[in-house]
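Long-time lurker, first post. I've been practising inverse folding by hand and with some scripts of my own, and I keep getting stuck on stretches where the structure tokens seem ambiguous. Below is the full token string for one chain I'm working on. Before anyone asks, I'm not after the true native sequence, just a reasonable design that respects the backbone. If someone could post their per-position residues I'd love to compare against what I wrote down in my notebook.
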């Protein structure tokens, strides 16, 4: 009898799962406007500073993104629309500690990645590949 109880308990425990990736994916879909930019001089004293920009990124439900500027490096300028794909990190395809990663279509290096976090405050932060810390904070519009 203990053996059957153990099996039932094991099945119940293994069927319980968190669906954080679904809530992140649902929360990320939409348009986001750049509101702050972060840079660090190398001593850990960096902070986000308010910025006035018309830069907008849009996450589509099909796993693609569009941005009115470059994704290959951090910039606040707007320009031609660039595209890419994104992956929620709970996906088996991703290998980061962030909520997700963006793979731009236009960077010279196919291994270029921009990582993102969706904060509980409702803000989206993109982290670019930099020697020192650099990132951009977006607000949903």
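-- Answer (accepted) --
I ran through it position by position. Result:
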């Amino acid at each position: 009898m203990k053996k059957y109880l153990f099996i039932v308990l094991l099945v119940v425990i293994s069927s319980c799962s968190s669906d954080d990736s679904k809530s992140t994916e649902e929360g990320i879909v939409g348009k986001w406007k750049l509101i702050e930019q972060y840079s660090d001089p190398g001593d850990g004293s960096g902070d986000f500073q308010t910025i006035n920009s018309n830069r907008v990124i849009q996450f589509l439900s099909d796993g693609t993104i569009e941005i009115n500027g470059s994704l290959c490096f951090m910039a606040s300028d707007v320009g031609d629309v660039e595209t890419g794909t994104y992956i929620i990190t709970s996906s088996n395809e991703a290998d980061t500690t962030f909520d997700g990663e963006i793979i731009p279509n236009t960077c010279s290096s196919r291994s270029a990645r921009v990582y993102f976090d969706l904060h509980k405050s409702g803000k989206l932060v993109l982290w670019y590949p930099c020697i020192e810390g650099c990132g951009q904070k977006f607000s949903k519009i």
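A couple of notes from the structure itself: The two ends are 58 Å apart (CA to CA). Helices lie at 2-15, 20-28. Happy to go over any region you disagree with.
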